[in-house]
Amino acid sequence: MKITFVQALIIIVLIILWIALMPPHPSGSGRAIAPRIFANLKQIEIAKIMWAAGHNATGAVQMAEQDLTPYLHVVSPPGSNLVRNIICERYYLNPVGILPEAQLTQNFKIWPKGTIFSLNPTKITRPTNSVSPVLRTP
Q: In what order do the strands lie in the sheet with 101-104?
């Protein structure tokens, strides 16, 4: 069976229409949001640990965002957070020894505005292990 030029053209047009009409990828779904925020929190905490080790900081020493940028592999535009925002959350670095937190600045699906995402302090000492999240709502 030989396909003619017109038949091939029709097949190509149908494939293009099918791709154009596909629904968008559900990367912004509610379930995918929490793990991405927790990954950002882990990155911030690891950067804090590396900064503290490099500066011989002990105790509750507060650092600025620009202090941590050399330890993060995320390229953010000037004036933005250390990590890419997922859904308009605000990240709080907190001093060394206190885990960072993320707070939602707007309602999003099942989480109301003001929900705080935090890491479980008992497992952060081993960043290679999975970290259990702790959620608090206002």
A: 89-92, 101-104, 116-119, 133-136
Which residue intervals of the chain are DSSP H helices?
A: 5-21, 30-54, 65-68
pLDDT in tens, 4-46: 888 888 888 888 877 777 665 544 555 578 888 888 898 888 8
Would you give the distance in Å from CA 35 to the centre of its chain? 7
Task: Write b or e for each residue in 109-130: b if 16 or more Cβ atoms lie within 10 A of its Cβ, otherwise e.
Answer: eebeeebbbbbeeeebeeeeee
User: By three-state DSSP, how is residue 92 classified?
Assistant: strand
- H/E segment holding residue 136: strand 133-136
- SS3 label, residue 138: coil
- What type of residue is 75? V
Q: Which structure tokens are listed for 95?
A: 């001093």
Write down the residue that tokens 């705080």 correspond to: 116
Please give the Cα distance from 24 to 12 (Å, whole number).
21
pTM above 0.90, yes or no: no
